[in-house]
Amino acid sequence: MKWIENLFRKLGFFFFRLILRNKHVQLPLNASKFKKILLLRYDVLGDMIVTTPLFNVLKSKLPNVEIHVLGTTRNVGLLSYDNRISKVLCYEKTVSSLMKIRREAKAEGYDCILPLVFNKSTNAGLWANWMGGSKTVKIGWTNSWRRELYKSLYNAQIPSIEAPGDKMTMSQIIVYFACKSFGWKYSSDLVKLSIVLAPKHEQFAHEYYYQFKEHKTVLINVSAGKVSREMPVDTVSTLIKLLTDTYPHCVVLLNATKQDTDKAKHLESQFPGKVQILPYSPDVLNFCALVKLCNVVISPDTAIIHIASTFDIPVVGLYKNSEHHCKEWGPQHSKAILVHPDEETGEVRTIQHDKIFSAFQELNNRFTFI
C-alpha cells in the first residue's frame, strides 16, 4: 500500500539524517575557501560529453580550485587528456572498486560535491555522501514534496521548478545548476561542448581519412544497444543505396559495436568500394577524432550525436516520440534535423528509409556538406 511505502521512506530518511548529519547551508555558496570540487558522473559516455561545458565554467570562475570527476569505465576515457580535470576516479561496478573510490575521496577531503545524475536524486544523494564527509557541501536538485526528506542527504537544494527543462538542453541545465549553486549569472553563451584530443588521436583520424581524398563521408551508426532503437539492416541498406546513387562522390562509413560486426560486414559486402566499416580502437578519443573528420552523421539517440555536436558536424538524429527528451538529449547544436517514428510505439526501428533520406536532403540543403 502507498501509505506503508511512504512511511518506510520517511523512516529511512530519518535514519539517514541521524547517521549523515548534513547541516543546512545557504545558497549561493561562497567558494572562496574551496580547494576541491567533485563532480559525480557515474553513468555513460553521452552524459559525460554533455557535462563538458561545466568544466570550462568551473575553471574560469574558480581557477584555483581543483575539479575532480567520478566516472565509470564507460566514460572516463573521454577525460584522458583533459587538463581541466585534476583527477579522475573510476567506479568499475564492483564492491572492491566502490571501497577504493571511497578511500580516495575521503583522502581528498572534498569541499563540495555536485551530483549531476538528476533523474535519480535519492541515489545521487547517497553517492554524494559515500564520497564526501560531513563537512562536504552536497548540492541536490529536488522538488517540493521531497524537499524535507532530502535534507538528510543534501546540505542545500535547488528546487527543480527553477529548471526550465522543457526549454533547455541537458548541457544548459547542468551549467544552470552550477550557476544557481554558486550565485553566478547564467547565460547560454557559457554552454559549449568540448572534447580534448591529443595529437596522436588527430593523427590516427587523418591517416584513416587520407584514403578518401576528395570524397565526402557519411557516417551511419548502426548500433544503439537495443533493437528497438536501431535501424533494421534493410532500412540501412536502402538508405545507403539512395545516398550513393544520389551522391556518387560520397563514401558511407559504418560505426558498429562488436555485437553488430556481422550486420556491418553484411552491409559492406553489398556495396563494395562505397561502404567501409570504421576501424575499432579501444581508445574512445580515437573514435571522437574519427567523428570529427566526417561530413555528416546519421544515428539513433546515442553518444555519437553528442560527439558530432561537439565538433559542429551536421546530424540526422533518430529519436523516439518525446519532445521533452529530444530537447534535453538531442543534438546540442543547430546543425541537426530530428526524425521521429510514425508508429504509436515510438520505436526508432519503425522509421522508414525515405523519411531519413528526406531529412538528410533537407539538412544538406541548409548546410551543403555533400
Summarize this entry quickly.
This protein is α/β, with parallel strands linked by helices and 370 residues long.
Describe this structure in words.
- The structure is a single chain.
- By secondary structure, this protein is an alpha/beta fold.
- It has 13 helices and twelve strands.
- It has helices spanning 2-20, 45-61, 95-108, 121-131, 147-150, 170-182, 199-209, 233-246, 261-270, 284-293, 303-310, 323-329, 353-367; strands spanning 36-40, 66-72, 87-91, 112-115, 137-142, 156-159, 216-221, 250-255, 275-277, 296-300, 315-318, 336-339.
Features:
370 residues, alpha/beta, six-stranded parallel β-sheet
Ordered list of secondary-structure elements with their pairings:
Layout: H1 2-20, E1 36-40, H2 45-61, E2 66-72, E3 87-91, H3 95-108, E4 112-115, H4 121-131, E5 137-142, H5 147-150, E6 156-159, H6 170-182, H7 199-209, E7 216-221, H8 233-246, E8 250-255, H9 261-270, E9 275-277, H10 284-293, E10 296-300, H11 303-310, E11 315-318, H12 323-329, E12 336-339, H13 353-367
Parallel strand pairs: 1-2, 1-4, 2-3, 4-5, 5-6, 7-8, 7-10, 8-9, 10-11, 11-12
Helix pairs in contact: 2-6, 2-11, 7-10, 8-13
